[in-house]
Amino acid sequence: MKKLTLLILGIVLFSLSSLYSQDDKAYFQEYEPGFYQNFILKDVRAVKEKKQAKKTRKYLRMDQSGMNLPNDPNLYKTFWHTPTTSQGNTGTCWDFSTTSFYESEVYRLYGKKVKISEMFTVYWEYVEKARRFVKERGNSAFAEGSEGNAVKRIYKEYGAVPRSVYDGFKDGRKFYSHAEMFKEMNNFLQGLKESNAWNEEFALNTIKSILNHYMGEPPVEFDYEDKHFTPKSFLKDYLKLKMDDYIDILSYMQEPYWQQVEYKVPDNWWHDKSYYNVPLDVYMELWNYAIENGYTMAIGGDVSEAGFSRKTNCAMIPDFDIPYNYINEYARQFRFSNRTTTDDHGMHCVGYYKADDGKMWYLIKDSSSGSRNHDKSDPKFGYYFFRDDYVKLKMMDFGVHKDVLKKYIDKFGK
Asked: What pTM does this model have?
């Protein structure tokens, strides 16, 4: 009887399970914002934003409206240079400007058009910054900035490569961004400083691994135009640039004129003392001689002045700052000493224009976002236009071929 009861119970349970069983299916669905996110939270945020006072900051600017400004590159006597290219969200103007300068030098000397990798130089510059940071036990600057002559130093040590071989882009980026990469490297180095763990090999290997993750590992050999190169042989045999042929000219009163001195700014983190320091009138003479005779220049100085417009892309010194004819070495040094002239930005001077009033203007190729506030089809896109008074007061140094200084080289005892 007991067996019969169990049998009947089993048959009933089987019948019920058959009656109610279904072939259920499941799938993965990406999260989609609904009414709560799209309407309720949106309203909450909108009201909150209205209640928050918006902070604005106003700057005194020179009114350039209505002025007849030579802000068209077609007006300028221009020397060959590669098209303007953006440095993106990086502090690497020193590299973009000087790389562009060396590209122009390859064309000036050998008639070859080449695009050189900026990021190959940036990669090894970070390695060298980290090396010095470790050697100096944290008492050396580690930042994104540097000086233009860092490119020469890196070329001499590591060589150079074409951009087509190493562009430093990863993850489908169209513009460079080094914020996260720099933060990770800096945090690592600051950690070494806090722990007093100064193992150079470990430190550099870690820095390289971070750089490799964000930029990719630079090549040790490659093919270009059907020839095989290393970075050093590419510099020597293809670019054929002799790094000792390039100098940097400076003009400031705090160091003796007619001597090679240190440019005392944070971006000269390795304390280079090779700058040729000359009086301001000679500085301007050499600048004009260079650009009027086909030498382009890698230049550096201040781009945060009242007369520097990112609407017209023109830079000049307004009279309410200092009248044109009053600019001299004292005015220049005063602004550098009180830090109203700072070592902001590196650019590439690629041409000149003599205006009807006798003033000189210079065509400046730029890699920053400030020169790109116009449509790409606008001739101004990627260029600035500096009047000579702006250079005289605010551009602190320039890199150029040593032949430009030939007239005065004996004054330096060489």
From this structure: 0.89
In one-letter notation, the amino acid at residue 53 is A
State in Å, rounded, how far the first CA of the chain is from the last one: 122
At 161-199, the pLDDT tens digits run: 999 999 999 888 899 999 999 999 999 999 999 999 999
**Quick one: 216 and 254 in the same domain?**
no
Pairing relation of β-strands 314-315 and 383-387?
parallel
Tokens at residue 25, please? 């299916």
- Percent of the chain past pLDDT 70, that is, above it, reads 94
Place of tokens 């382009």: 296
Measure the CA–CA gap between 200 and 204, rounded to whole angstroms: 6
Handedness of CA 57, 62, 68, 71 (dihedral sign): negative
**187 and 299, same domain (yes or no):** no
Same domain membership, residue 315 and residue 287: yes
Q: What is the pLDDT of residue 296?
A: 98
pLDDT category at 19 given cuts 50, 70, 90 is low
Cβ burial of 354 (10 Å; 0-12, 13-18, 19+) is middle
Rounded Cα distance, 296 and 362, in Å? 11
Q: What is the CATH number of the domain that holds 392?
A: 3.90.70.10
C-alpha torsion angle, residues 232, 233, 237, 243 (rounded to 10): 10
